[in-house]
Amino acid sequence: MNRRQFLFRSVVAATGFEGVLRAEPQDGVDALGIVDTHQHLWNLSRFRLPWLKAGGELTRDYTMADYQKATEGLRIAKAIYMEVAVAREQKLAEAEHVVKICADKNNPTCAAVIGGFVLESSFKDYILQFKGNPYIKGVRHGLNNQKQLEDDQLIQNLRLLGSLDMSFDLLVPPGLIGQAAKLVERCGDTRFILDHCGNADPLAFAGNLDWGRKPQHHADQWKRDVDTLASRTNVICKISGIIARVPKGRATTEVLAPVVRHCLDAFGPDRVVFGSDWPVCTRGAPLRVWTGLLRKIVRNRSVKERSKLFRTNAIRFYGLA
Length: 321
Known about the structure:
disordered N terminus; 38% helix; 8 strands; 12 helices; alpha/beta; TIM Barrel; 321 residues
């Protein structure tokens, strides 16, 4: 055991994540490498992220070198960059920047989902700049109210994405998942991804825990809405994000499993993909802890199903080489 491994194990023990390091699969599920479908990177001297709170734990640069250090030993073979909600005037610059990252074969990032103002008529000219670009696979823009989800301009722009063979990431609050199902149905030729298990709050499924706050939604309503959305065959689910909602040191398989298992069962083995949500995931635990906990949650599923979750579904969905 080298010094870095020793230090990490010490941190894991101190924060209550004992046993996670033993979650590495022994049957070669990820022998060919994991695909991380939700990687964030940012350089605050280059881009401004208005959502970052000054002095917060994420208010620093998170570089490719940082990501590679965080994923050391996890067999991450490919990663898909996810837009980081830069300032409005920097959307195009962010997209052009990440194309250069993807073209560099010395790092795992091979594709990207970029930001774009899908509620505006200017979106068409913006996205057509990337028509046929081998690295740009889709677009994400947060949608926060029902009126947005019913917007005719949004529908038109999302249908355009479908015609360009690009996808759209659904980043919506739990209370809008049911409405998102109607949106997905209206854009039948466009592929959608439900981010972060529909922003599920693990606390909603474990009411006996004291996290100093109330659950952000009702578990039963979330389940019904996820089932409704999953019935639309042009949407998949990203198993990601939920650990960031758990207080540090409190994440366990028991806390996370109800959300993960419902999503896996609702969408089925062919429509789920793994995402790290790094570095946002570190609000709850280090990336390797999240990965280890997820592996433990799914360890009783077949090798084929686990391979689809961690690798093959992403390769097929995003058309990765």
